[in-house]
Design brief:
Keywords: Signal. The protein is about 75% helix and about 0% strand. The protein has helices spanning about 5-15, 20-25, 30-50, 60-70, 75-90, 95-105.
Length: about 110
């Protein structure tokens, strides 16, 4: 099964909060396959969480991030993330796609 489909299965399950039974009907695959995908992708996300989740350490950091978010056009940001997510899925598979969706950049070299 391709990384793109597995990423979609995982994101659909995560975003909708539905049961494996519903996900397997939507994607036309066995429930055991949905279970395997969800658990494997979750393990991959847990393994890379320190590369994509950064806790702000100072009030100055919080102000800087707030200013950056305030300056973003939500539609432009969504389209940029969609393009990056699609490229990551095509190029490198599930791990890269998850990094893009989690960080908005796919850049794992952030501090």
């Amino acid at each position: 099964m391709g990384a793109a489909i597995e990423t979609l299965v995982f994101l659909f399950w995560l975003a909708s909060g539905t049961s494996y039974r519903v996900v397997c009907r939507v994607f036309g695959m066995p429930r055991s396959t949905v279970h395997r995908i969800v658990h494997r992708v979750t393990e991959e996300m847990v393994a890379i969480r320190h590369q994509v989740i950064y806790l702000l350490k100072t009030p100055e950091d919080m102000k800087a991030v707030s200013r950056e978010f305030a300056g973003l056009d939500a539609t432009e940001l969504f389209l940029k993330l969609l393009v990056q997510l699609t490229a990551a899925i095509s190029a490198s598979g599930v791990q890269a796609a998850l990094m893009v969706s989690a960080t908005g950049t796919g850049n794992s070299s952030l501090p």
